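Dear H.,

Thanks for agreeing to be a second pair of eyes. The structure we're designing against is below in token form, covering all 90 positions.
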């Protein structure tokens, strides 16, 4: 399980405009990875920590989620991973 670089228990109301944790599947359809996405109020881009479902390397970075399909790139295997059915969870 990936964890963001902050404690979910310490989040103040209004501090984040977006928080989402989602499972990621490999090409066999097995859930082997996970991504945690968040956006702080005032930030331009979303930030993420991800365990790649293909190579299992954990990476983190920023991503602009302005146009679908939403994708994040793995720093380990350089695959572009599509995020399906992204919905807001506050
Ligand atoms: Zn990878």
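And this is the sequence the design step returned. I haven't edited it by hand at all.
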């Amino acid at each position: 399980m990936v964890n963001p670089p902050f404690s979910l228990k310490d989040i103040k109301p209004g501090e984040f405009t977006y928080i989402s944790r989602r499972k990621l599947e490999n090409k066999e359809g097995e859930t082997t990875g996970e991504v945690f996405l968040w956006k702080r109020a005032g930030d331009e881009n979303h930030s993420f920590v991800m365990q790649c479902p293909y190579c299992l390397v954990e990476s983190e970075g920023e991503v602009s989620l302005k146009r679908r399909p939403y994708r994040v790139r793995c720093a380990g295997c350089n695959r572009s991973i599509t995020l399906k059915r992204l919905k807001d969870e506050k």
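Two observations from my side: Strands lie at 16-25, 31-40, 46-51, 58-63, 70-73, 80-83. The chain has one domain: 15-83.

Warmly,
E.
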